[in-house]
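fwd from M.: "can u put these together and see what the complex looks like"

so here's what she sent:
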Amino acid sequence: MKILVCISNVPDTTAKINFTDGDTKFDTNGVQFVINPNDEFGLTRAMWFKEKQQATVHVATVGDASVEPTMRKALAIGADEAIRINANPSDGFFVASQLAEVAKNGAYDLVIGGRESIDYNGGMVPGILASLLDMNFVNACISLEIDGNNATAIREIDGGKETLSTNLPLVIGGQKGLVAESDLRIPNMRGIMMARKKTLSVVEPIDANSTTKDTKFEKPAAKGAVKLVDNVDDLINLLHNEAKVI
Amino acid sequence: MSVLVYTETENGSFKKSAFEVASYANSVAEQMGTSATAISFNSSETDTLGTYGISKVLNITNENLKSFNAKAYAHSIVEAAKAENATVIVVSSSTDSKFLAPIIAAQLKAGYVPNVVAAPESTSPFTVKRTAFSNKGFAQTQINSEVKIIGVSNNAFGAHENKTNAIVENFVPTLSEADFNVKSVDIDKAVGKVTIADADIVVSGGRGLKGPENWGMIEELAEVLGAATACSKPVSDMGWRPHGEHVGQTGKPVASNLYIAIGISGAIQHLAGVSASKVKVVINTDEEAPFFKAADYGIVGDAFEVVPQLVQKLKEFKAQNA
Ligand SMILES: Cc1cc2nc3c(=O)[nH]c(=O)nc-3n(C[C@H](O)[C@H](O)[C@H](O)COP(=O)(O)OP(=O)(O)OC[C@H]3O[C@@H](n4cnc5c(N)ncnc54)[C@H](O)[C@@H]3O)c2cc1C
Ligand SMILES: Nc1ncnc2c1ncn2[C@@H]1O[C@H](COP(=O)(O)O)[C@@H](O)[C@H]1O
C-alpha cells in the first residue's frame, strides 16, 4: 500500500495572530510553525500502516522553502520520502490541484489529509482532491482500518458517529481520533538523523487557478471587562434581563 | 442566475440551521435581484421554507437517499444548481455540509468559502466575511469563480422571517452506482440529546471537576437549560467524557448563544474554539484563570458549591417563568 499524507504547515496553536501590510497578510514574525494538528493524527495513523501493514508513506506540502523544517519533522517521525510543490498555497482549489498531480504520478492507494488546517480553516483540500482524482472520500474521519482493498472508516457526525465501508483508492480528511493522543510521536535523535538522509524532492507547480482570495484580515474586537457576581441569583438575573439568553 | 440553498433535514424535519441558511440565501438573492431556491432530501414539511423567503423548493424523494451520503447528495445538488442556473450555493456549517461542499466545489470549479459570518459585503466582486485562524481573526474573502459556494457559520446570521409563497417541485437527480461507493454501515447517535452544533446553550466542564463521577451536576445543569454538554480537551483525552464532546481549536467549534465554562482555565486553544459564542459565563476557583478575561459574566467560586445552587435556582426560575 502506498500512502500520501498531505501536510499543511501552520502556526503553532499557541501563536498570537497578527496581521501586517495594511492587514492584508498574516504576520509570521516570531511565529513557530508546526505540522497541522489534524495532519499529525493522519501521519501517525500512516506510521501504523507502515509498521503493521508494510505501507510506504510519502508526505507532500505545497509551499516555499520555508516549509521544509516541518517536512523534515514528518520525515523524522517516520515518513519515507517528502515532496514539496514549490508554490505559494494561494487557496484550497489551487492546493488540491497541485496535490492531485503529485498523487496521480505517485499512484497512491490512500491519501490522508486533515479535516481542516488551523490557519485558514478552508476545510476543503481533501474533498476537492478526492473529486479531482475520482477517489472515494471520507471527511472528519476518526478511525480507519484497511483490509486488502476494503476500507472501514468512522466519521464524526453532529451528535455521534457513523461507520462507513468503502474501497481503495481513498482520500480522507482526518482528525483527532485516528490515533490516541498518547500515540503522537515526538521525533527522537535517531529519527532526526535518519530524516537528513531521506529524499525531499522539490517539484514545480502545474498551471492551476485559485478561486478565492483573502483581501483583508481583522482581529476580533477587544472584549469588555467581565462582570463578576458572587451569587447565582445575580447571575440568573443578568442572564435573563441583561444578556437575554435564558 | 439564482441562489440555491441546501436545507438539511433529520427524519423529514428541517434542522434549525436550515432556516438560518434559507434566510441567508434569501438575503443574497435580494442583494443580487434574484430569487432563492431550496433543495431538500425527503422533507415532509417543504412549505415551512416559504416563511424564510424561499420562493421554490426542490424536494427529492428517494429511498436510497434516506440517510446522508456525501457524494450522492453533492451530485444531486450539482444537478439542481445546473437546472436552476444557480451562481451562488449556500450550505450550513454542519459536518454533513462540510463533507459535501468541497465535492460540489470540485464539480462546478466553484470557489468555496466556509465559516461565513455575514451577508456579502458586495456581490461584485463577490466578497464575504468569514472567521479564520480558528476564530482568532476574520478575513474578507473574494470569490472569483463563476459559481460561488458559501458555508454559513452556525448561529451567526440568524433565521429571519420573510413570508413568501414557496412552490414545491419534486426533483429527480440522475445518480449512478458510483455515487454510492461509500456506504453507511452504522450510525451511533444519542437520541433526544441536543447536539453541540445545534444547541442554543452549551454547558462545558474542565479538569477542575476532578473526575468523571462529578459530571452528574453538569448534566443536571444542561438538562434544566435544555443545553448540550461539552468538555475541554484533557477531559476527553483522559476518557472522562466522549471525544465528541471535546470543544476548542482541535475539537468541535461552539457558536451558541450562551456558553458556560466550569472548571476550565481558558487556554488559548480552548478559547479559539468557543469564542464565537455570544455570551460566556465562567465558574472557576481561581480569579486569575485566563478565561475570565474572555468572559462576559463570572463567578469566582468552587464548582461543587456553585453548580448545585445554580441548578436549584434555575429550576425555581423556570417554574416561575413557565
Ligand atoms: C496542539 C494543542 C491543541 C489543543 N487543543 C485544545 C482544544 O481544542 N480544546 C481544549 O480545551 N484544549 C486544547 N488544548 C489543551 C489546552 O492547552 C489546555 O491544556 C486545556 O484546555 C486545559 O483544560 P482545562 O481548562 O480543563 O484544565 P486546566 O488547565 O487544568 O484547568 C482547570 C481549571 O479548573 C479550575 N478549578 C479547579 N478546581 C475547581 C473547582 N473546584 N471549581 C471550579 N474551578 C476549579 C482551575 O482553577 C483551573 O483554572 C490543546 C493543546 C495543544 C498543545
Ligand atoms: N499547502 C498545503 N500543502 C499540503 N497539504 C495541504 C496544504 N494545505 C492544506 N493541505 C491539506 O488539506 C487539509 C485541509 O486543509 P484546508 O482545506 O486548507 O483546511 C490539511 O489538513 C492538509 O492535509
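replying to her w this: Chain A touches chain B through 82 residues (CB under 8 Å).
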